[in-house]
Amino acid sequence: MLFDRICRDNAIAHRLTQPRHPTTTGKIERFHGSLRRELPDDGVPFADLAAAQAAIGGWVTEYNTARPHQAIGMAVPADRFSTAAAQAEQQLLPLRLPAVIALAPVPPLPADPSPPAADAASVPVPESSPAVYQGGPVEFDRVVPASGNMQAAGRQFWLGPHRSGMTVTFWAATDVIHLTIGAARVKSLRSHLSAADLASLAAQGGRPAGPPPLPPAEPGAALEADRVVSKNGAVHLAGQYVAAGEILAGRQVSIRIQDKTLMFFDPGTRELLRTRPSPLTWDQARKIRGTRPAGPPPRPSAEPVTVQRVASNTGIIMVTGQKIALGRIHAHQVVTVHVAENTLSIELASDDVRTVRRTTTQPVRSIKAQQPRKAAHVP
Which residue segments constitute the domains of the chain, with CATH numbers given? Predict the structure, then answer.
C-alpha cells in the first residue's frame, strides 16, 4: 500500500501484469535468470540466511556497477543513473516520498573510512506521525473481497470478482467518491457522506486526502454516469426514461452526457455502443445521481459494426445517414450491412456482397432492422 501511495503522489501509474505471463516482464525475468544461473545454481550451499543475503548483495552490486551490459552499449546500469542529465532530471522533478522514509538516516558501510557520528541521538530523525486531520476529503484503503462486492463507508461498491484481492484507495468528499487501483481511477460516484462521516473515517485510520484523481467538471462540460439498461431498452436519467436500445437490455453501460448527445459505451473498454439525442440540460445532468466529470470520448470498435436494414419500396436503405440504392428487386428485403470506417459492405445473397464507399461520419444509431408493424386486432 505504501508503494502504491508513493506512485500515486508522483503521478505514476502502477500497472500490473497478468499472472503466469513472464513475457510481459522481460527485463526482470532476465535479471532473475542471471541471478539463478550464476549464484544459487552454480554456487556452494550457504551456511545461513545472513551468508545468502551477503552473497546476493555482492552479486547485485557487481551486476549494477561493474558488469558491462550489451543492451546499453556495454555500459553499467549505474552509469545511467549518475549522469549529469539524470541528476538534472531528478532536480527538475524530484521524487516525492512520505516523511517516514524520505530522510531516514543511512548507516555508514563497514569499509567507510569516515569517522562515525559522535552520538546517534544527535542524528535528526524526521517526525513519522501521520498528519492531523483538519477537515476536508479523506483517503483510505480497502481490499476487494472474493465476491467483488465491497462494503466501505456504510455503502456497497461493486468492483467484480476479477478485482478480488486488489487494494482500492478511496478518495472521499461530501460531493463525490473516487475509487482508484494503482493510481488509475476505476469508478466515481456521488457521495453520501457528511463532514461528520469524513471525520469518523479519519479517526478510523483514514488520512487527509491529496488532490482528487479527477478534477471537478466545469459548467457546460460533459458528464458521465453508470446505469443498467432495463428490459425495455431504457435508462432512467433526471426523472425521465431515455431510450438506449433494446439490444442493450440488461447491460451495464456508462453514459456520456453532452450538450445535445447521449453516448452509451462499455464501462470497461470505453467502446461506443449507441448514440441518442439528449433531452437534458447541463443543470439537469449535473444533478443526476452518480454523475462525474467525463473522461476521454468513447470510440467505436475497430471491427466493422454489423447492422440490419429493410429495403424500401424502391430498394433503398439508409445506414449512418447515407442512402444506398440496391434496386427494386430487393424491395422489402432484410439485408445485413457491415459498417467499417471507410466502407459499407451489404450482403444481398449468400454469394453477393456489394461494397460502397462510406461518405458520412455519423455513428451507427440502430442495429436491428425496422420492426414489422403489428397486425390489426381481430375480435
Answer: 2-92 (no CATH), 138-208 (no CATH), 223-293 (2.40.50.100), 302-379 (no CATH)
